[in-house]
Design brief:
The chain has one domain (about 1-55, about 80-160): 5'-nuclease (Rossmann fold, 3-Layer(aba) Sandwich). About 55% of the residues lie in helices and about 10% in strands. The protein is built from seven helices and four strands. The longest helix is centred in the N-terminal third of the chain and has 33 residues, at about 40-70. It is elongated.
Length: about 170
């Protein structure tokens, strides 16, 4: 059995540090199951979470200016840089290595993803979803016949719910 998380799940569950993330890790350990991490998901998650962290730091800095104007001096906490945030995110993926099998795309995956985009097959609807198509093609190729789950809140994937049973999506 495998479980793959889309980028939005890594983002919303804060790299599985949430209660739901901890529950997932516990369940994976109990079932001796693996998280499948397509390379594009990791790259996208690192980029999005780093950006979110940088925005949070900017919000803190703005709030510190308000506090400084009230106190007449600025408190001087040490805030992380974008590099520090990015390194921490990479470190979390390293911590989770015992649960994760990283999946690198093949030329065939890229080719089938492009064909999927051009044919407007799910997860492509009104918008072209090349990254999502690449993720889907990797999972279809590597885990044909295996029990697996893609955890996402991306509605475009919901049109692909028969994927586990058929390659005719």
């Amino acid at each position: 059995m495998f479980v793959a998380l889309d980028t939005n799940s890594w983002f919303s569950e804060r790299l599985l540090r949430s209660g739901l993330g901890a529950t997932l890790l516990f369940a994976l350990r109990q079932r001796d199951a693996r998280l499948i991490l397509p390379r594009v998901v990791r790259l996208e998650a690192v980029a999005q979470l780093t950006e979110d962290g940088v925005k949070a730091v900017a919000t803190i800095e703005k709030s510190l200016r308000t506090v400084a104007s009230l106190l007449g001096r600025r408190p001087d906490p040490e805030l992380p840089t974008a590099d520090t945030i990015r390194n921490a995110i990479d470190g979390r993926f390293d911590e989770l290595a015992e649960f994760i099998d990283q999946l690198d795309p093949s030329i065939e995956d890229y080719s089938r993803a492009i064909e999927r985009v051009i044919a407007k097959r799910p997860p492509n609807g009104r918008d072209e979803q090349f990254r999502d198509s690449l993720i889907l093609e990797q999972l279809l190729r590597h885990f044909e016949g295996a029990e697996g789950f893609l955890v996402t809140n991306d509605g475009d994937f919901f049109a692909v719910k028969a994927v586990a049973n058929s390659h005719h999506c």
